[in-house]
C-alpha cells in the first residue's frame, strides 16, 4: 500500500510544483472561484505588509485571516529556511525514535485498553512516518525547482498541507473501513441482516483500494490542485479538518477536541462537526445515547470541556499575540454579516447584493442558519453512522457557507470513494456529475464574458453559481438517500415483495 | 445724543478694525489662454473663538461665515469649487491650486471634543451657504492627512485629529454656487471688481475655480495683533482662441462683457495687475499705465502693469495683445488607472521634477474610496527605473462603508526625473442601492495631492509687508530658497462591476428556491421512512369497504 501512496504523493507534488512554476499560477490565484476574501493568499501578504508597516492588519477590511494564521506565516516567511531545515531534522529524529515505539504499540494493540482512549496516539506514529515521505518528496521537488521568490517556501507550506490532508484522509478511511468490516462481521454473526442482502455486503477486496482512492480524489482533484496553486489558506483549513477526522477515528478525544477547536477558530462553521465526533466517541466507548444516563452526560461534558477549553486557549492566545480583540469582528463578524459581495461560487454574494436593505438582517440570519440547522435532525437520523454524518456536515458547510471556494468542495468530494458501495442506489448521479462538470467549465467562461468582454452581465455568472449549488445539493441529498436506502435494505431485504407477492417499489412516506 | 455719538464712535472704531481689499490679476498664458484671478480679502481683528463673548456686530465680514466659525470652533477653513482641470504643463502654476470638484479642509480648534460631529454639521451648514452638495461629505470620504495639510494661518498645530479633509470630485460647479459666493462680498456684485463676474461668461471658460479661505493671521511682522482673514478667490481661464477669431487679442469686455468703472466704495485698495513679464515690448496696453510693479511669486519674478481703481481714471478698457514664453513648472504630476476588466486595476501616479539639478522631497497624499481595495504590498515607487523607497509612509486602510484608504508618502524626487508610484487595487461589487443613478458612468476617485517645497530660482521675499499684492501673499514664505507648491492630479473615473438592477425580486426568488430545494430534500429524507409502495385500492372497493365497515361485515382485501 505504501508504494502506490508514495507514487501518488510524488505525482501530486510534481503537478503542483510544475503549476507553481508556470505562468498559470498568477492567473489561478486571481480566480474568484478558487480564492475568497477569507483565504486569498494576496490578502495574507497584504496582512503581512500591514504588520511590517506597523498597522494592525485588522484595522482595514482586506485581511480576514485569524491571528494565529498570520503569525504562522509571518514566522514561516521570515525564517523559512530555518523552519524547513529544523522541521526536516526534527521529523527525522522523531521518526527514528517513533518507529520502534510504533512496533511496540502494534504488539500491545491486541490487549489495548479503553482507559487509553483520551490520551492515545496510536495513529500519530503512522501519520508522522508518512509526513517524512512528504518532506522527502518536497525536498526532491525543492532541489528540482529552485526558486528565488520570497514566498517560495510558503508554497511548500501549502503542498505539505495538501499532503497531510490526503494522508489523514487515507488513514482515517482505512481505520473506518476496518471498523465497518468489523461491525459487518458482528452483524452477520448475530444475524441482524436479512438473508437476501448478501450482495450489499462489503468485501475486504473491494474495500482495499478505497483509502487510496480517497487520497487520490483529494490530491488529484482539479479543485484541490487549483486551490493549492492559488496558495489559498483553504488547504490549511482542510488539513486541520482532515486531522480532526483522523484523530476522531483513531479515538483520541483530546486531540480531536483540540483540532476541532482549531478548525472552529479558523472558520466558525466546523462547529457543527462537534455532534458527529461526539456520537463517534460514544459509539466507540459503547455509551448509549440516552439523556437519562449519567455516563452519557459525563462523556459529553468531558468532550465539550476539551473542545471549549482549547477554543478559549486558542482565542486567548491570539488575543495575547495581537493585543486586542479586533480580530473577532474582522474574522467572525465578516463571516456572519457578509459585507464583501465579491462573486464566488456560493449563494450569498448576489443574493445580498440584490437584497432590500430592511430585510438584510433577516435574510442573513436565514442563510447562516442553514449550516447549523440540519445538525440536530441529521444527528438523530444518523446517530449510528457518525462518519457519514461528518461527510454530510462538511458537504452542508461547503454549500451553505458564506464564502465558499472550490477547495471546500474538494474536501467533501474526497469522501465520495468511501461511499462507492452506495453507487447502485444513487438516483441521478449522471445528471449531477454532468451539471457539476458543466458548471466548473462555465465558471471561467461566464466570468470572462461579464468582467472582461462586457458582453454578458452578472446574471450569467449568478445562474451558474445557482446551478452549481443546485447540483451540489442534489449530490449530497442523493448520497443521503442512497445511504438510508441501503440501511433499509440491509434490515428488510433487498428484493422486497408486496403482499400479493409481486415485486414492490420502495417509497418514502 | 450721547448714545448716538458713542454709536458713531463705535462704528468708526469698527471701521478702523476691518478692511477690505480687492485685486484682479490678468496673465496671458503661453497656450494663448487668458488667466484672470480675482482675490478679495477682508481682515478683521476680532476673535470668533473667545469663550462667552459673542460677536454680533458685523460690517465687512459676512455674518453667515462668522457665525459658522464661532459655532463650530473652526480655526481654519478652506473650501473650493472647481469646474475643469488646471493644466499645469500648459498654464504654469496657479496662484491658489484647487482640485476638480469641491474640496473642503478644516482645522478645528483644539478645544473641540466631538470633531466628527462638528464636521458633519459644518458640512451641512456650508452646503446650505454655498448651495452645493457638501452634505454628501461623510465618514466614507473624509480623511485626516497627517502631513499634507498644515494650517496656513497662525499657530502650528500638528495634531491631525483636529483636521478633516474631503473632496467631492463629482461636484459640478455652476451659477447657483457663484451667486451665494458673490453675496459674501461687501459690495456684492454691484460695484468694484465683482461687476465683471457674470456667470454666462465665467462659466463659458476652460477652467473655473472659486474658493473661500478663512484663517487667523498676524497683522504685522511682530505678530502683536491677530486678525481673521477671509480670502475669496476666483480663478478663470478663458479660451480666447475659440471666441477671438484666432487673434491673440483680449480685452476686459471680450472676457467678461463688462468693463470696470470704479472700485468698491468699501475697499481700501482695489487694483488690477496685468502680467507683462514675458514680453514687455510686445505688449500694448490701453489705457497705458505708468505704474509698474514687481512681485516674486511661485519662484518666479514677474513684472506687472498696475492699475489702481481707487485713483479715478477713465473707465478701464484693457486690450493688449501678444504673448511670450513661460517658465516650465518645476513640479508636475499626473495620474491614471491601468489594467483592463472589472476585477483589478492599478493606479499610476507620475510625478515630474523638472528642476535641472536639485532633488527635493514631495509629500504625496492619496485618498481612495473603500470600494477600491488597495493592496499596499503592491506599492512600488520608481524613479529613473530604480526603486525609490519612500522615507515616510502613513497608511490607513479602508473599512468597508466607513472609511476611505489614506496613503501619504514622502518621496525624494531626483533632479530632472520622472517618479512613478503604482499600487494595485481590486474593484468591489457593491449592494445594488449603493450605486449612483448612472452606475456604468463609473465612480470618481479624488485627485491625489502633491505638496512640496520647491527650490526657487530667485530669492523669495520672506519679510512681511502690508502692501504686497494679494496673490503673492497667500502661502507664508518661511525661507528664501524655496517656495511651497501644491499640485493636484486628475481625478480618476473607475468602473465597477454592476449587478443587474432590475433583478432583486428574481434573485430573491431563485436563490430561495435553491435553498428550499436543499431544505425540502433533506426534510423529506429526515422525516420520512422507506415503505413498500402499496397501490391504493380502486374507488369502488373503497366504497364497498366503507359500507361493509358500517354494516360490521369483514372487509374486502
What is the CA-CA span between the terminal residues of chain B? 126 Å
| Main beta-sheet strand count, sense and barrel state of chain A | none
Helix content of chain A: 55-70%
Biggest interface and its residues per chain? A-B, 65 and 54 residues
The largest sheet of chain B is:
11 strands, mixed
Question: What is the number of helical segments of chain A per DSSP (H or I, 4+ residues)?
Answer: 22
* Assembly state: heterodimer
What is the rounded Rg of chain A? 23 Å
- The amount of beta strand of chain B, in percent, is 25-35%
Tally of alpha and pi helices of chain B? 10
Average pLDDT of chain A, rounded to a whole number, is 86
What characteristic shape of chain A results from the CA principal axes?
A: globular
| Through-space gap between termini of chain A | 44 Å
Strand tally of chain B? 24
Backbone structural class of chain B: alpha+beta
Structural class of chain A: mainly alpha
Helix content of chain B: 10-25%
Succession of helices and strands of chain A: HHHHHHHHHHHHHHHHHHHHHHE
Shape of chain B: elongated
Strand order within the widest beta sheet of chain B? 5-6-4-3-7-8-2-1-9-11-10
What does this 3D model show about the protein?
Chain A: Keywords: Endoplasmic reticulum, GPI-anchor biosynthesis, Membrane, Signal, Transmembrane, Transmembrane helix. Chain A: Residues 1-25 form the signal peptide. Chain A: It is found in: Endoplasmic reticulum membrane. Chain A: It holds the Pfam family PIG-U. Chain A: Pathway: Glycolipid biosynthesis; glycosylphosphatidylinositol-anchor biosynthesis. The complex is a heterodimer of chains A (509) and B (557). Chain A has 509 residues and is mainly alpha-helical. Chain A has 22 helices and one strand. Chain A has helices at residues 2-21, 24-28, 41-53, 67-78, 80-108, 122-144, 152-189, 204-207, 210-219, 222-229, 234-250, 253-267, 274-284, 294-322, 327-337, 348-353, 360-373, 375-381, 386-400, 406-413, 429-453, 458-492; one strand at residues 506-508. Chain A starts with a helix and ends with a strand. Chain B has 557 residues and is α+β, with helices and mostly antiparallel strands. In chain B, the strands form four sheets. In chain B, strands 5-6-4-3-7-8-2-1-9-11-10 form an eleven-stranded mixed beta sheet. Chain B has a five-stranded antiparallel beta sheet with strand order 12-13-19-15-16, with no helix packed on it. Chain B has a five-stranded antiparallel beta sheet with strand order 17-18-14-21-22, with no helix packed on it. Chain B is elongated. Chain B starts with a helix and ends in a 6-residue tail after the last helix. Chains A and B meet through helix 3, helix 16, helix 18, helix 21 and helix 22 of A and strand 15, strand 17, helix 9 and strand 24 of B. Strand 1 (506-508) of chain A pairs antiparallel with strand 24 (530-532) of chain B, so a sheet runs across the interface.
